[in-house]
Amino acid sequence: MTGRVRRSARRPVAVPARVDVLVLGGGPAGTWAALAAAAEGASVALVDKGWCGTSGAAAAGGNNLWFVPPEGEARERAIETRTREGGFLTDPRRMAAAVARTWDAVHELAAAGYPFPDDEHRPGERYLGSLQGPEYMRLQRRRVRRAGVVVVDQSPATELLGDDDGAVVGAAGVHRQHGNAPWSIGAGAVVVATGGCAFLSGALGCNVDTGDGALMAAEVGAELSGMEFSNQYGTAPAFGAETKGLMYQFATYSRADGTELDIGGMGRPALQRAMVEGPVYARLDRAEPELHQKMRWSQPNFFLPFDKMGVDPFRERFGVRAVLEGTVRGTGGIAVPGEGCATTVPGLFAAGDAASREDITGGITGGGSHNGAWAISSGSWAGTAAARHRPRAAGRATPAGRAGLRPVGRPRGRYDDVVAAVQSRVLPLELNRFRTGASLRESLAVLDPLWEQVVDGLAPADRPGTHSRQAAAMVAHARWMYSAALARPESRAMHLRGDHPDTDPAQTHRLRVRGLDDIAVIADRPREAVIAS
Amino acid sequence: MIEVISEARCIDCAICVDVCPTNVFDADSRGRPSIARQSDCQTCFLCEAHCPTDALFVAPLSGPAPEDSPLRDEEALAREGRFGEYRGWIGWGHGRSPGSRADRNQVFTLRLRALPPPEPVVPEQEGPRP
């Protein structure tokens, strides 16, 4: 490091000692939360592990929204369809609120200058249902700063601060571009919007999503929900990991010898079964030539990797693989049963992919529509509720972080080895996409000792940041998801059990998960497997 | 993963150091960036998008490119017009209009809705009842 000073070190951001609302995470959910809290007159700080504007799964991709106009019965129909597909685990009231909030929010974006395209079907109107990640998040950063929010980049939060009554009263972390200098911010309320956990699979834009927020929340006693619905995989070209799925609706799939597979469009479970059996190739030859340019302009970074490789995906076959997107495009996360996405811990709110999305998408992926709408709506609700939260008199603030942060034993592991061990149990389709009771138990037998190892402590990482902490969060997520999966002996939505292939109407309930050393899975009250007519 | 910082194009602004979501770059005292932690690169292309002089090239591979790969050859990449490609598509930079104005995802989400659902739907006996 001698003689090498990072440019940003010359202009450090002053971190406030105390704010009304502290937002952890600067993706869509975090920025909408910060805007909503600032609109209530609260003083707000937003702290991001990376850089607010590029951080998070949304910035790297396109974001089609769950975007339903208020006219006619379109919204009722959209809610009914998703309720059925999601395995009857949704909350119709929150679904309706999310659709309504998203509609309003995109009009706010239009007013703020987002360059929306012309509507294909309504001359003279703009289409507001799709947001290009880089453009969207560049605008959100501008809006947040204009609203007076203190934005602190490259400064991962490592732990929450709790008071003697068990309420959350702030958070602490490090400035990773300033030699890991510590920061600590007291807050009336904290919004966790740190994203889901994709286990460093490389899925597009998802390596920032290592589940840090859920680990912090669990350490102060927060419950999680829907962790069994954590095995969403995206399709990517075999040479890379660009998991953008929409264009595969034009794909035909084949084996190495050219034999065509009878799998239409995106047909995920069938495609993934074929991938388990052997290499699969794709070609986007179902797209009419007049669509090609529209496809490119709609998803430029779907085509960018092919262009860089010199592959024409419309005419040439290319290998495809399945890349785990975990809870980023699964639905599990911190349970938010309370008004305004309040968690089960006072002073702690959760939004976006850090929170459970069962309310609006049940047990199927919210990727490609619902997650974007959820980020906007849950962020807005959490920000408003956090600003209105009235904390009790501030007492002593105790840091709650443990595994990967405060070793309790002799360090006996390396970060890279722990990550590799977790990945070996969660990335393979045959272990996670297609589950059996036996494979789940076998995985937990590997993961439980790994947790003890992380609690004891890992050898110091060879790079700045919070790598040990990320490893702890990934081990915790793997254990939560397989513990929940074991407690659901049926197949429902994305959770497929080879030993229980049918859906069991008696299991029309959510599974709540709590704990770190000892994990408890609790079945929620049963839900009605009917749609109100 | 990030493979090339073009010495000739780089103006030492270190924006890439600031914006990288996985903290891959370091900068020296003049602001000149270097690839310090390539293995942390998540291949999101966002440094390319934010680089004002098209000085960066991110290969689309999920691992490092082999030593002799054309994806590491600055001259060959420049010849092929591979610098600043993403920035061009999203329409950032002087004299360009935002690529989002040409976004036609509306067409593709509508078309998708007409196709069968991607996940198996819960069996009929659990469907709507009178």
Automatic annotation (TrEMBL), chain A:
The record's keywords, sorted A to Z, are: Flavoprotein, Oxidoreductase
List the SUPFAM superfamilies. FAD/NAD(P)-binding domain (SSF51905), Succinate dehydrogenase/fumarate reductase flavoprotein C-terminal domain (SSF46977)
Q: Where does the FAD-dependent oxidoreductase 2 FAD-binding domain start and stop, copy by copy?
A: 20-229
**Which part of the chain is the Fumarate reductase/succinate dehydrogenase flavoprotein-like C-terminal domain?**
434-506
InterPro entries named among the record's database cross-references: FAD-dep_OxRdtase_2_FAD-bd, FAD/NAD-bd_sf, Fum_R/Succ_DH_flav-like_C_sf, Fum_Rdtase/Succ_DH_flav-like_C, SdhA/FrdA/AprA
What Pfam families is this protein classified in? FAD_binding_2 (PF00890), Succ_DH_flav_C (PF02910)
Q: Output the PANTHER family linked to this UniProt entry.
A: SUCCINATE DEHYDROGENASE 2 FLAVOPROTEIN SUBUNIT (PTHR11632), SUCCINATE DEHYDROGENASE [UBIQUINONE] FLAVOPROTEIN SUBUNIT, MITOCHONDRIAL (PTHR11632:SF51)
Query: Per its record, how is this protein called by name?
Result: FAD-binding protein
Gene source species:
Actinomycetospora endophytica
Its lineage opens with: Bacteria, Bacillati, Actinomycetota, Actinomycetes, Pseudonocardiales
From TrEMBL, chain B:
Where's the 4Fe-4S ferredoxin-type domain? Answer: 1-30, 31-61
Q: Which UniProt keywords apply?
A: 4Fe-4S, Iron, Iron-sulfur, Metal-binding
Question: At the top level of its lineage, which domain of life is listed?
Answer: Bacteria
The UniProt entry, under Pfam families, shows:
Fer4_7 (PF12838)
Q: Where are the transmembrane segments?
A: none
Protein name (record): Ferredoxin family protein
The species this protein was found in: Actinomycetospora endophytica
The beginning of the lineage is: Bacteria, Bacillati, Actinomycetota, Actinomycetes, Pseudonocardiales
